[in-house]
Amino acid sequence: MSITINPAEDGRAAAVIAAERGAELWTDVVRLQRWTDPDHADIYAIAGELVLLRCVWDFFARGTGTLAPVDPPRVLVVSGLYRFTRNPMYNGVLALLLGEAWLFGSVSLLEYALVVIVLFHLFVVFYEEPALTSQFGESYQAYRRAVPRWGFTTRPFQEGTASAA
Prior knowledge:
Elements: H1 14-30, H2 41-61, H3 88-104, H4 107-136, H5 138-146, E1 157-158, E2 163-164
Antiparallel strand pairs: 1-2
């Protein structure tokens, strides 16, 4: 779709016309009309759920705790999916939410997922990372230096070496 702006159109300013046409494009995107085949959305959502469940298991089995703040892991969990990203559990939840938004074509779920992304980031930066630094000290700092907060590394973290392989 090509957008052309004629400043003289209806006597309105070019900026107003551009804003209106931009809003029309945004409406199309928000309606999720441009999303491709939703047949694969369920796979994305299920993958997010499996990531979440794997992380819960790692917290229980390796960290001897749960994801609940009242019973957090007593051991720093840096194995499994945590070798590639510091927050795979949050990534799994986001994949689940975005997969559901895609599957159901739900603007509300998409908006909710965006709010959740912001809240997760704020929680991690202002609470979780300082708490983990306080609890696990240099071992967490070494892990933090080697493994990205949200992205993924192709070099898995090696327990006990404080570096990526």
